[in-house]
Amino acid sequence: NTKLSVDFSEKLSIICFCMDTKKDSRIPQCGSLPDLSKERIVVGAKQLRKAVTAGRAKYALLAKNADPAVTEPLVALCESYGVAYDLRYSMQEIGKACSIEVGAAAACAVSDL
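RE: above sequence
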């Protein structure tokens, strides 16, 4: 019983340490999302589509919990243009990484071409 409470408190301290409470932060402190703070980004399906077709997209983040009617065509587009994409994150995680107050179905790091 004591071991269980130690494990729980240890896990809780790790979670609290990893939580990002800074309002201006662009990514979760301990998350595995790519660091977008030094990237030029676009947010949203339409902007991602424009960046990919213009050849400016470096990589795309697509939300795993977004409507498949939105993400599936973007996956196909990224594959046809050879743009790397990631479907591991939620809309909330992507929105936070992009410094917006709402979730985002898609975001993309772009080059300055």
